[in-house]
TrEMBL record:
InterPro entries: SoxD (IPR006279), SoxD_sf (IPR038561)
Gene Ontology BP, a term: tetrahydrofolate metabolic process
Superkingdom assignment: Bacteria
Example of a GO MF term: sarcosine oxidase activity
Coiled-coil boundaries: none
Organism, scientific name: Oryzicola mucosus
Protein name as annotated: Sarcosine oxidase subunit delta
Entry-linked Pfam families: SoxD
Length: 88
């Protein structure tokens, strides 16, 4: 088991979290997106080695946050809230 630092609740078991994707993978505008761009958004990932920012949801409090984690060692460098004050 790994502990993830929720910026709202503190360190919690990884079982309480849901992966939301790579940070910075911005959803394209649905009205103006080509099939190639939409496919790229859905399926193409950076899969980089080393420190990688990703979006997670803490299912207990329902908050989204960015987690910075090393993809090789799984060590966590930190997390930050995506909303001011939390509890959207």
């Amino acid at each position: 088991m790994q502990l993830f630092p929720c910026p709202f609740c503190g360190p919690r078991s990884e079982a309480e979290f849901h992966f939301g994707g790579d940070a910075g993978n911005v959803r394209p505008d649905e009205d103006e997106v080509s099939a190639d761009r939409w496919s790229s958004y859905l399926y193409m990932r950076h899969n980089q080695k080393g420190m990688s920012p990703s979006i997670w949801m803490h299912m207990t409090c329902g908050e989204l946050f960015q987690l910075d984690r090393d993809t090789l060692t799984h060590s966590v460098a930190g997390s930050k809230a995506l909303t001011e004050g939390g509890h959207r």
